[in-house]
Amino acid sequence: MSAPFPIQGVVGILAEGCPAGDRKLEPALGPGLAGIEMRADLLLGQGRGWTPDALSSRLRRLKASGAPVLFTVRLPSHGGSFQGSEPERLRLYRLAIEAGAAAVDAEWGTEAARVLAREQAPLIVSAHFFDRMLSPAELDGLGERMAAGSPLAIKIVPTAQRLMDSVHMLRWLEKAPPQGPRRIGFAMGDRGVLSRLLALAWGSAITYGTFGAPVAAGQLRVEELLEVYRVKELKRSSRLFGVAGGRALLSYSPYLHNPAFRRRGLDAGYLPLQAGAFSEVVEVLEPLQIEGLSVTIPFKEAAFRLAARADARSRACGASNTLIIQRASDERTIHGHNTDFDGILLPLRRRLPDLRGVSVGVIGNGGAARGAVRALIEAGASPTLYFRNIERGRPVAEALGIPGHLIGDIRAGNHRVFINATPVGSQAGDPSPVPKEIFQGSAANPRLAFEMVYEPAETRFLLDAREMGAEEISGREMLVAQGVAQFQLFTGATATEEEFSDHYRRGHALRHGG
Fold first, then answer.
1. What CATH number should be reported for the domain holding residue 53?
2. H or E stretch including 155?
3. The pTM of the whole model exceeds 0.90
4. Which of 216, 222, 243, 250 could form a disulfide with 294 if both were Cys (CB 3.0 to 4.6 A apart)?
């Protein structure tokens, strides 16, 4: 039987970018951080003063500060950068053990791992697969072989190709025999982020976060793991919600909902589900018992089709941005809702309480534009659609029953409100989709520019509007307004836009290192 594993929880990775004499990590371990992984292969030779003696000295200081240290010297063939021989690598491992490392990580099948096992070192035997996922049968077989030498723990990290691969990793963790070595496991890649966030809840001894840039695909920052996702607090029985989309990892919704769960004492987590097809998302609903989803581009139409019941707003535009999954006995019912209407109408009504008859130019002809038009029609406004491609845009306008024109036909004074419902603006250096002259107005009758892009916070569309004296509505306001409505659908509890705006600001600071 293996000895008890000395680290349990979130481990922060000490890698490139930190000078050997920088002590900032020692007092900044922070509440909830379980330990430090010292990636010696990424530290040695980077020209910042790191030597074997410096590694040993830092390790002793970390240990003295109360931080258990996991020491790793990864080979290039296993995703690392150590260029020395196996005897040189063994010397580093032994130096680390002598300095007080709680555990050392060496790759299964290497000479270093075999020697350290014979020496009864506190050993994690690891296996990484950077180009593929292992099947459940392969995971079981490899796990049994790795455990045969009775290491302290076995660690398997393949690369997820589908969201369901994260579930396979979690199930492998859950099947760990009570008398064997501890298991550490999750999947790399975008589809593997789910397994990193739920690994502790399903039985992994540790999950990893970074203090800066990721050193493997799918890694998140320590602050996000602990403060936003609260991975130490999540349990196997915790209620799960999430955001599903083609770029879900860029969504700010986890920064809105997770703090709101915590504030109300709810045992729940909200996770990003990034996928290439909506079928991937559907696959994991039952294994993870997900209760609700925010749905973003490009899955809103598919979400509407999946729902057995849909609200009038979803039916009006053929899209749902919110799914509520109800289970009773062996039956499951999925309800579709569209809170994008709230995201459009609530910010507008703060400036224009009565939208009846208000002329609005909606720029774009995709799903976001269609949703905005349907919301405006519900409120009694008078929308007009503008598009770049007449073959694609005109049929959309006709289907919506509103006028449609090429973007070049927009003129100053055409409309009271302009809504950018295109993704133009989401990339650095993007121009505005419209000329700034359209925002010309007067003090008595200013134009109103509504930007649906929320990252970056200031797009050229908004900057041009400000220069021309127009009022502004940012994409953040829309995100917050629709998120507040979603939160009530998820939990039955009421959140305020002020609260969610505060969460957004904190999330923005975390994402940008503030």
1. 3.20.20.70
2. strand 153-157
3. yes
4. 243
20 and 166 together in one domain: yes
Please name the amino acid found at residue 505: R
pLDDT for the residue numbered 1: 47
In one-letter notation, the amino acid at residue 24 is K
What is the pLDDT of the chain when averaged over all its residues?
93
What contacts 104, CB < 8 A, 6 or more positions away? 70, 71, 72, 93, 96, 97, 116, 121, 122, 123, 124
pLDDT in tens, 104-143: 999 999 999 999 999 999 999 999 999 999 999 999 999 9
Based on the domain organization, do 118 and 87 belong to the same domain? yes
Domain-embedded: residue 202: yes
Can you tell me the distance from the alpha carbon of 399 to that of 114, in angstroms, rounded to the nearest whole number?
68
Residues 216-236 have a mean pLDDT of: 95
Backbone angles phi, psi at 419, to 5 degrees: -115, 120
- Binning pLDDT at 50, 70 and 90, where does residue 27 land? very low
Q: Is residue 347 part of a domain?
A: no
Give the CATH number of the domain where residue 296 resides. 3.40.50.10860
Residue 4, domain member (yes or no): no
**pLDDT above 90 (res 46):** no
For 322-374, the pLDDT digits (tens) are 999 999 988 999 999 999 999 999 999 999 999 999 999 999 998 889 999 99
Checking if the pLDDT of 18 tops 80, the result is no
Strand-pairing partners, residue 220, are 209
Domain count across the chain: 3
Is-catalytic flag, 300?
yes
Residue ranges making up the domain that contains 143: 9-232
DSSP string, 305-358: HH-SEE-HHHHHHT--SEEEEEEETTEEEEEEE-THHHHHHHHHHHH-S--TT-
Q: Are residues 442 and 295 in the same domain?
A: no
Which pairs count as long-range contacts for 277-286, CB under 8 Å and 24+ apart, including other chains?
Answer: 278/244, 278/302, 278/303, 278/306, 280/162, 280/163, 280/164, 280/191, 281/163, 281/244, 282/306, 283/162, 283/163, 283/164, 283/167, 284/163, 284/164, 284/166, 284/167, 284/194, 285/325, 286/332
- Identify the residue whose tokens are 């987590």: 269
Strands (E), 199-277: 206-210, 220-221, 239-245, 268-274
CB neighbours of 118 closer than 8 A, spacing ≥ 6? Answer: none
Q: Are residues 329 and 397 in the same domain?
A: no
C-alpha span between 450 and 352 (Å, rounded): 13
Do 33 and 167 belong to one domain? yes
Percent of the chain with pLDDT over 70: 96
Catalytic residue among 155, 175, 235, 300: 300
Q: Which residues pair with 309 in a beta bridge?
A: 335
* Domain CATH code at residue 411: 3.40.50.720
Q: Using one digit for the tens of pLDDT, what is the confidence trace for 251-268?
A: 999 999 999 999 999 999
Token pair for residue 362? Answer: 């909606």
